[in-house]
Amino acid sequence: MAEMTLISATGGALPAVRVNRHWIDGQMTAASDNGLTERVSPAHGVVVSHSARGTAEDAAAAVQAARRAFDDGRWSRLAARERAAVLLRVADLIGDQVNEMALIETLETGKPISQARGEIAGAADLWRHAAALARTVEGDSLNGLGPDILATVLKEPIGVVSIITPWNFPFWILSQKLPFALAAGCTCVVKPSEFTPSTTAMLGALLEKAGLPQGVVNIVLGHGHPVGSTMTTHPMVDMITFTGSTAVGKLISHTAADRLKKVALELGGKNPQVIFPDADLDSAADAVVFGTYFNAGQCCNAGSRIIVHADIAQDFVARLVALTQQVTFGDPLDPATQVGAIVTPEHLARIDASVQAAQAAGARIALGGGLLQVPGLGQQFYRPTIVTDVAPDMAIARDEVFGPVLTVLTFETFEQALSLCNDAEYGLSAGIWSSDVHTCLAFARGVQAGTVWTNTWMDGFPELAFGGVKQSGQGREIGRYGLEEFFEIKSVVMRIGRTRTNWVRPR
Ligand code: NDP
C-alpha cells in the first residue's frame, strides 16, 4: 500500500482578497494608524485577506464602547426573551452564510473545506443553544432562614468581557464564548488571531443585521500586543476569556490579577487514550486516527498520546499505520480532503523539531516524520507521524506538539495506565477503550481531566461543559456551566417586619 493518500491541488480559482475592518460601536473602521496585516493561505501561498492592524487606541475605544453599552443597560437590562430572539436571528444568519464563511476559514487556516462547513454550521447551533439558555436563568430563594427573613440570590451579568481567540477553530471557539456571554447580558470586545480574522470580522455584519444594539459587541483585529494586551489590562474590563497557549494564558492570568479581573482560560492538552485488549479495537483504532489527524492535530483536544496494553501494542500500531495510510491529506479545497495544511511555517518548524528531538532521544518513527509535499501546492504540510518506543519522561510524551503526530506508550496494569495518564501537566480530556464497564467507570473517576470519553473520542455537544484542569485551564465553556461563568452572584436579604433587635442599646 502507498505510504499515504494524497489529494493534489484542485486548481480552482480563489476568491478576491477580502478586506476586514474593526467593528467598534457599530461602525466599521480602519486601524487608527491605517495599519494592515496580510494573511497568506497556508496551503495555496496566495494572499487571502488584508485586515486592520489594531492599535492600543483602537482596543481602548472598543472597551469604552462596550462599557457604555453595558452601563446604560441597552442589552443587560433587556428581557431575556428579547436577547434570545437576537441570538436566534444571528444563528439563522450564520446558517445562511455557511459556504462563504467556510471558504474563507479554509483559506486562512488551511483546514479542509468539508470540516470548515461542519464547524460553521455547528457554531450556529451553539448560538441557538445559548439563546435557549438565556431564558432559563434563575437564581435561588431561601425561605428557611427564619420567620422574619427572606433571601434571594440574583445572577447578574459580570459586565464587559474581553474575548481572545486562536487560529485553530476561529469561528467555533468564538461561538463557544460570545453567544453565552451575550445570553448572560454581558457586552464584549473580541479579538481573533491575526492569522484568521475573517470569519470573526464577517460576524459583525451579521450581528448588526440581527438587531444587536451598537456597542454591545466590538471586534478589534490585530496582534496579541497591543490589541490583546490592552483588552486584558484595561480597567473597564471585568472579565477575560481566552483560548490559546498556556504561556499566554499564564501571562493574562498574572496581569489580570493586578485588578482582580475574572479570567477563564482554555489552554493546551496532552490528552491520553488508554486501550485495553478487550476493547473493540477497530473502533478504537479509527478514533485514535481521527483524534490524531483531525485539524492536522492542531487541536487542544487531540488524542495524541495513546497508552496501549503491552500485549496488543505491536498489532495495534500496525493497524494505526494501515488506517493512517488511507486518510486523505492534501488540498483543503477538495471536499474529499480530510487533513490540510499547517497554519504557519513557524509552527510547521516547531512540529518537525519535536519529532526530530524525539528521534534523537531514542524514540522510533513508525510512520511519517518530516514535511509533506502535496502535488501542486506549497510545502506547508506535515506527514502523518507515529512515534513509538517512547519513554514517559521524553518531551514528545509530555509537551503539546499541536501537529499530526501520535505518541505511543505502553502499560501492563490498570494502575500503571492511570498513573501514566495523570503524570502530566495538562488535564483537558482523556479516554478509555474497554468493553468492561467497571474498568471504564474506575478510569472515569480516577483520571484528572475536564472531559472523559469512554469508547469514543471528541464527541461534544452544546449542552455539555468543556474545559480543563491543571495547566489546561480554568472555568468552563458551553452549556449551562459555560453560561454561569458570565454571571456575578448577588445575595439579597430582606427582613419582614421590624423584628431585628437594635444593636445600639439605649442608655
Ligand atoms: P497564542 O496563545 O500566542 O495566541 C492565542 C491568541 O492570543 C491570539 O489571538 C493571540 O494574538 C493572542 N495573544 C498573544 N499574545 C497575547 C497577549 N500578550 N495578550 C493577549 N492576547 C495575546 O497561541 P499561538 O498562536 O502562538 O500558538 C502557540 C501554541 O499555543 C500552539 O502551538 C498550541 O500549543 C497552543 N494553542 C492552543 C490552542 C487551544 O485551542 N487551546 C489554540 C492555539 C494555540 P495574535 O496571535 O494574533 O498575535
Describe the structure.
With 507 residues, the protein is an alpha/beta fold. The chain folds into 2 domains: 15-267 and 472-491, Aldehyde Dehydrogenase, Chain A, domain 1 (3-Layer(aba) Sandwich); 272-454, Aldehyde Dehydrogenase, Chain A, domain 2 (3-Layer(aba) Sandwich). 37% of the residues lie in helices and 22% in strands. The strands form 8 sheets. It has a 7-stranded mixed sheet with strand order 17-20-21-15-14-23-24, sandwiched between helices. A 6-stranded mixed sheet has the order 11-10-9-12-13-26, with helices on both faces. A 3-stranded mixed sheet has the order 2-6-5, with helices on one face. The structure holds NADPH dihydro-nicotinamide-adenine-dinucleotide phosphate. NADPH dihydro-nicotinamide-adenine-dinucleotide phosphate (NDP) binds next to helix 7 and helix 8.
List the helices and strands and how they pair.
Elements: E1 5-7, E2 18-20, E3 22-24, E4 27-29, E5 36-40, E6 47-52, H1 56-71, H2 80-96, H3 98-109, H4 113-134, E7 140-142, E8 149-157, E9 160-164, H5 170-184, E10 187-191, H6 198-209, E11 217-219, H7 224-233, E12 239-243, H8 246-257, E13 262-266, E14 272-275, H9 281-293, E15 305-309, H10 313-324, E16 328-330, H11 345-360, E17 364-367, E18 371-372, E19 381-382, E20 385-388, H12 395-398, E21 405-411, H13 414-422, E22 426-427, E23 429-433, H14 437-446, E24 451-454, E25 469-470, E26 473-474, H15 479-484, E27 487-495
Parallel strand pairs: 1-16, 2-6, 9-10, 9-12, 10-11, 12-13, 14-15, 14-23, 15-21, 20-21, 23-24
Antiparallel strand pairs: 3-4, 5-6, 7-8, 8-27, 13-26, 17-20, 18-19, 22-25
The structure holds NADPH dihydro-nicotinamide-adenine-dinucleotide phosphate.
